[in-house]
Design brief:
- The protein is an alpha/beta fold and about 100 residues long.
- The protein is built from 4 helices and 4 strands.
- It has a 4-stranded parallel β-sheet.
- The longest helix is centred in the middle third of the chain and has 15 residues.
Length: about 100
């Protein structure tokens, strides 16, 4: 399973399209101002700690290591900062310190 954050943005949309075209299993996460009231988790407004807790819970529910592709600068930094905690449930490129 591959999880793409920011799937409706320019880069995220392209990533999702390429993964789907290759027949890979994809879950797309995105923020929409039109659907904000219906979203279970508001990634843009959440604290980094709350986001990590949400991702860890999601990883447990998905039941296996999932590829995590952050497509916003903020989510890329978050994944890098919390790589040790997220690494149990997600696969992502490790950034040098």
């Amino acid at each position: 399973m591959i999880l793409v954050f920011g799937a409706t943005g320019f880069s995220g949309r392209m990533v999702v399209e390429q993964l789907v075209a290759r027949g890979l299993p994809v879950r797309a996460a995105a923020r929409s101002r039109y659907l904000a009231a219906r979203h279970v988790f508001d990634l843009a407004a959440a604290t980094p700690e709350a986001t990590v807790d949400y991702l860890l819970d999601l990883g447990r529910r998905l039941g296996g290591r999932t590829v995590l592709i952050p497509t916003w600068d903020q989510t890329s930094l978050l994944v890098s900062d919390y790589a040790d905690a997220l690494g149990e449930w997600y696969i992502f490129p490790r950034q040098p310190a």
